[in-house]
Amino acid sequence: MSQYSLSAQPDSLLISHKIDSLESLLSVSSDPHVRIPVLTRLADLNNQTPVEVAWLERCYEEACRIDSIPAVYFALLNLSRHYYNEYGLRDSILYWGRKIDSISKSRNEYPNALFDAKSYSCQDLLWSGEYEAALNEALNEYHLASEIGHPYGLVRCTESLGLIYKRLRRDSVAVVVFQEGIDMLDDMDCSEVKRRETRMRMSAYQAECATRVCPFEQALGIFKRYEAAVDSMAVMTMRTETFAHIKREYWLLYSSYADLYIREDMLAEARQMLAKANKYVGNVVVEGDYVENTYRATLAHYYRKTGNLSKAAQLMEEIFKTERIPIDLQFQAEVLEEQGRLSEALVLYDELNDMSLQRNKKTFIRQVNLLRALHELKNKEEQEHEMQVNKERMAEKQRQILFLSVVFIILLCLLYVLLLYYQRARRLKNELLKEKHSLLESENNLKCEKAKAEEASRMKSAFIANMSHEIRTPLNAIVGFSDLLVDGSGDPDEADMYASVIKNNTEQLLNLVNDVLDLSRMETGDLNFKFDDYSLTECCQRALDSVRHRIPEGVELTFTPDIIPVTLHTDKLRLLQILTNLLTNSAKFTQKGEINLSYKVDEDGKQVHISVTDTGCGIPKEKQSSVFQRFEKLDDYKPGAGLGLSICTLIADRLNGTFAIDPTYENGARFIFTHPCGMPSSTCNRQTGEVN
Length: 692
Prior knowledge:
70% helix
């Protein structure tokens, strides 16, 4: 027999090489369909290590990205399994298990992963000593699996029930329960790897129980099936390259085999099995794996049988470093008693007695709880009977209510039909009224359009009449004086006069055409305005220069600017057009006196008022409102088409200004054009006249 040790000999080099290859593949691919299988394999290779959690969480995230439900269940279940194997992390087990439960409920399905997670929760309670809670969870899982007819769920809850009986040392019942679960394995809807793994695990539990209660031949048959299950899983692992702790399973198998032979005093066979088990020593899943203590206990029993009591006691002390269960305490006390160490044995017997009392107390509490549960169950049955009677009464009342409801619904249908008929009649009436109103509105619109058409026809006739008169007059002058020039009978002074008349009438005709075109383009929106910053003083000077030759003798043309130099953001050409039109009108109606162009800035600096004042004949007050209309003339004998003021009004509006006549001025006419200038009020000090 070789010296006992726990030095594992895993194929770490091969696994490390596979992990490196998979990590390289993961780093070069961003496709979730490629990454998920790689992450799954990496988690499998790092089984029950801290790194496994990171790979599983990344697998879960990638699966959620593409809504891969199988991969989601895989990651969540293995996270739950990882924390289940790490003792004392129940919160994490429940956290990941609830995620599986939430997803399955949202999809209205019952995956295998749901029952696996429930089994982990139930068995975690069992290992913590909470037998009642574990039993309740196992029964709830069994009822759910039975209700929906889920074979896999039935196998898992049967396994949990078998473990509960095993933990309570009801080994004979546990053997039967485990066998029931094994018999249902072929009906499970799962992968072949999962089926073989479950068979191997349940066979191990059954073999451990059979060792203590079954006859040797029966127990040996169970062990043979257990060994066949482990061999089958090993073959599957090699064929599919599935990661599994096969070496640990062989370690447990041969340790259990040796224990069976030791109990039958077949020490030679036990020695052979211990030799086989020794080859797999150290292959644990987690720290404190119970296979270690199983192996130690089997060795201790072997050494006791062979008379090496000190070695047996030493091994039991190793076991007591991690757990102290009654059967091991009983064995150690017997070994110490055989060694003559009675005081130490007595201490262990006292401890064993205390544990027995504590266990009996818990058993009593469980029995009381069971009686309470039975009492509650009886009350529940009575309540169910009463509920059944009430249910029948309610059914009769429901039939009556149903009959009345049908009658009521029929009446409602009749009322609904009448309501529809009423609404239809009312809708037709409203439609007729709307149609009538529409016809009346159309009639009114036609009348308005007719009036507009008549007004347009009248304005067209007036326009043609005015235009024909305004065009004919300068054309007659141009034609007549052109004939005189061609005749050549006059002297040079007369020829110059004829040319001047022709020039003036040509300008008058050109201005008339320009006015008509400008008016038309402004009405259609085709007249473009180009805004920029210009000096108002310069614009006024240009306007004065352009009309100076038209000023009659005896009339003085003056300019009165404000003391503040003003720069306007405007269209220079259109501003000049307004000023020129106003100065030209003043020149036509002023025979003596003065024509003055001036401007003044408001105190707030936001507007500038440009005015043209003359000492001509003026405009009667009753006609001041009509002079801005098209073709409106105060004197039909004065040249012009009566479009200038109308054009000035349109231009002023486009420049965001106003254009009006001053009704308070009585010595002629004064037109005021107000233009926005946006100068700050602090620009000028009017009392001193100094520019800031």
